[in-house]
Design goal:
Layout: H1 2-14, H2 32-83, E1 94-95, E2 101-102, H3 114-120
Antiparallel strand pairs: 1-2
Helix pairs in contact: 1-2
């Protein structure tokens, strides 16, 4: 994660357009905007360092168990993903007290068509 943040910061700094020096103008170092951007990125890296270290520790802790889970359940989950055409048609999964997981389909609207309503009431449309 540190590498991603650092590479993004370096890319942002290095991709900033460079200004051409005019003849007779001396190089006074980075402009205020460049220096401000550098300070901002340095501050972000310093602020994010503890959170990134915690995240790295968490990933080291749960990584092996997550790998085992994916190796066992991966093929089954891939099969389910092939079968389901529209995930929005399902409710969120529910875990029962006994550990079973249920994924219910959302109820369909059973509102009859407008013509069926009026036909049931004995009214016809003209």
């Amino acid at each position: 994660m540190k590498q991603i943040l650092l590479s993004a910061a370096l890319t942002a700094v290095l991709s900033a357009p460079l200004s051409a020096q005019e003849a007779g103008e001396e190089d006074n170092g980075p402009s205020l905007m460049e220096r401000g951007a550098e300070l901002l990125l340095e501050g972000l890296v310093q602020e994010m360092a503890p959170a990134l270290e915690d995240l790295q520790g968490l990933m080291e802790e749960i990584g092996p168990s997550m790998g085992a889970f994916l190796s066992e359940m991966g093929p089954a989950l891939a099969e389910i993903a092939k079968e389901v055409e529209d995930w929005s048609a399902y409710e969120l999964p529910e875990i029962l007290p006994n550990g079973d997981i249920i994924i219910r389909k959302k109820p369909r609207d059973k509102a009859p068509a407008e013509n069926e309503d009026s036909a049931e009431e004995g009214v016809t449309e003209i």
